[in-house]
Amino acid sequence: MAATGDFKQARRNSSPRYQICFSFCQQNGRTASTIDGPGSKFKSIKSRHGIPDSSGPAMFIHQHPPFEGTGSRHHRNHSLLADEAALLAFKKTIVFDPKSRLAGWTEGGDVCSFKVVRCDKHRHSGVQLNLSRSELTGALSPIISNLSGLRYLILDENHFYGIIPPEFSSLRHLHSLRLDSNNLRGSFPGFLAALPSLTVLTLSENHLMGTLPPSLFSNCTSLANIELSPNLLTGKIPQEIGNCPSLWNLNLYNNQFTGELPASLANISELYNIDVEYNSLTRELPANIVGKLYSVVSLHFSYNKMINHDHSTNLEPFFTALANCTESQNASITSH
């Protein structure tokens, strides 16, 4: 596999022998906006699911409400002291901090005033650690799991290495886990199935191996955004993925998945984007799935080993199924 920094450029520069990319199903004068553009449906769906917008600043927290009483003050001190110990221990694992993001983290300081840390409105605990694009270098430390109230762990675009610690399975309140664009290795962290509130899972541009465990999708009612491209993942895409009713983005681009797209994807009415390009998927082009995805806007199936129902390159049945969509805008399908 090419170096991760080259993937996006290589994709832009690719010249498939036979590619179809065009707009369709613009019924009743409605034309869907692009995925990443201002005012796009991605942002409206993010808002609906309470997902932080990665393009904007860290979100949400009230900083200095009044104290609520002795009992509350004791709870607050105990929780924040534990958070302070965890954060200072995490700081010691960082071997390079070129932007001095952790410079203000000192013993006895106000955790809720630490740069890149946010607390809940009652100042009971830290709920967000946002070190996105900080260029930090160090092993991804299990000490982060001691931040028991953490809801948003945003560590994308750094140089963290090692494995994703199994101790992260104790972060029971975690909504968003963003570890994309690092140097993480090892097997896919199946223990993430233990996080019932997980909404955003982005592990793209690492070196993760192994299969996607079906258990990841056994209790995924909140899971809305899955970004796993590119990695070194293998095996079949589990049928259990159809248990995720809130899923709007499934990006498995540039892995080594085999088999066919699971028919259960047709159960996900919110699904907006499917990208499975550059895998080894086989069997028939999934007209039976796509025809039921009324909200889908973007489909990417290029560079797989899919065939038509009659083993020909006739794509008419597939695009006939697309006539059922109301918002689909872009399809990319390449012959091989």
Automatic annotation (TrEMBL):
Record flagged with keyword Signal: yes
Protein name: Leucine-rich repeat-containing N-terminal plant-type domain-containing protein
Keyword Repeat: yes
Organism phylogeny: Eukaryota, Viridiplantae, Streptophyta, Embryophyta, Tracheophyta
Transmembrane domains' residue ranges: none
Domain called Leucine-rich repeat-containing N-terminal plant-type: residue spans: 82-120
Pfam families: LRR_1 (PF00560), LRR_8 (PF13855), LRRNT_2 (PF08263)
Topology in membrane: Single-pass type I membrane protein
Major location category of this protein: membrane
